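DM between two lab members

TW: hey, do you still have the ADP-dependent (S)-NAD(P)H-hydrate dehydratase entry open?
JB: yeah, one sec
JB: this one, 279 aa:
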Amino acid sequence: MEELKPDILHEVIQKRFAQANKTSFGNALLIGGSLQYAGAILMAASAAVSSGIGRLTVATQRENLTALRVRNPEAMGLDWSHHGPVLDQVRKCNVVLIGPGMGESDEAAELVRATMRAMRPGQNLVIDASALNLIADHHIMVPTDVFTIATPHQGEWAKLSSVMIPYQGSMELNDLQRQNLNLDVLVLKQHHTVVLSDNRQVQLQIGGPYQATGGMGDTLAGMIAGFIGQFAEPRRATEAAVYAHSAIAEELAAHNWVVQPSLIADYLPNYMARINTNL
Ligand SMILES: NC(=O)C1=CN([C@@H]2O[C@H](COP(=O)(O)OP(=O)(O)OC[C@H]3O[C@@H](n4cnc5c(N)ncnc54)[C@H](OP(=O)(O)O)[C@@H]3O)[C@@H](O)[C@H]2O)[C@@H](O)CC1
Ligand SMILES: Nc1ncnc2c1ncn2[C@@H]1O[C@H](COP(=O)(O)OP(=O)(O)O)[C@@H](O)[C@H]1O
Ligand SMILES: [Mg+2]
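TW: and the structure you got?
JB:
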């Protein structure tokens, strides 16, 4: 399979134009974070903010909103139990990330279903973690007219696609199920993650076991949403985020036994400036 190369970063990460304002860099909505898994959506939010998204709203369980405001005052917050305002925001933004730390309650399933129904052509949807399991368990249809990116780990992909882990080495099988599930891009996370889309299959050749820690995927999901929100062409933006996430981890691993996912978000603005400076 073709290697995902660093060229993707130069292609995707574009210098900001002088007259730009926050509306020039996307409007993202992140949905997730039950009481038990609040950290997942907070890590995703930090990653999206650090990536440079123009505007960010997080819909989460009410009790998590104070932590969100303390950790990322840049983000706006919504109580996810009020579907009306959440769905209004779904319609306004150009990218939605749903799933990190969402949990698998019936209420969470209802919100996944309602979000999918509210989305319109031209919008982008990143589906991660609990949302993938909810889609599988509740037979929720992924919309065909929205650009969708799924980011499962191998356990989540086995459940969603019925391609069991020993068979996931077959890109033919994975890609067939990607298409059957109406997914435009499949980011199948593992050591050397693969990214599958129409007529293109690439594999990451960087990164390592210093990334094997909870929250690493939540951080990647926030980066993908942040990159898609502000850079043209969602497939390339996804690939760039996948590359940058592991490249930063690899840099940090030179001096750190384990790479804390939050540290990746902290280093992201510096890493991006080294790819393409705004000066
Ligand atoms: N701080 C927070 O708030 C955090 C919150 N988080 C959030 O919590 C939610 C639940 O996440 P989770 O980690 O409890 O279980 P989850 O990923 O659903 O796995 C379930 C089972 O699948 C398997 N499995 C797992 N990985 C696999 C792999 N790579 N390859 C193959 N199989 C794999 C494994 O089953 P086993 O193989 O052990 O039978 C595992 O027990 C989710 O929304 C997430 O975003 C986390 O991000 C952590 C930090
Ligand atoms: N041994 C490894 N080598 C390279 N990358 C890894 C390794 N282990 C985990 N990762 C990366 O860490 C992330 C884990 O994602 P995920 O399982 O969704 O974590 P979480 O849900 O806890 O945030 C993925 O991007 C995966 O590729
Ligand atoms: Mg995950």
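TW: got it. The two ends are 37 Å apart (CA to CA). The first helix runs from residue 7 to 12.
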